[in-house]
């Protein structure tokens, strides 16, 4: 898609431009262009994204980059049951995570109780704090 000044824009960028010019906020849950469209918190999604399987993507009609978005993982109440934490620790090469698993889970619960989820960079910081 080309805008008036000759720059290439995806539909997400175009919708942000319209939002800015019109003053009408795009709801975060709006299909395709909402901020939460490619936000994944389910244990299954997070685990497969960490493992780079992404088998569940066959149910997504388009890729995030096609519309100018990016996939984001968040950790919330449904990802505190162990496997997503284990896969993320393995990805960060933290072999001794089991010693600290309860502490990591408690720290995640504390953050989730305040703001509903933990972003992937925040989660990595928590793990790296225990990895030392």
Automatic annotation (TrEMBL):
Entry's Gene Ontology BP terms: coenzyme B biosynthetic process
InterPro entries from the UniProt entry: 2-IPM_HCS-like (IPR050073)
PANTHER family: 2-ISOPROPYLMALATE SYNTHASE 1, CHLOROPLASTIC-RELATED, HOMOCITRATE SYNTHASE-RELATED
Listed name of the protein: Uncharacterized protein
Organism: marine sediment metagenome
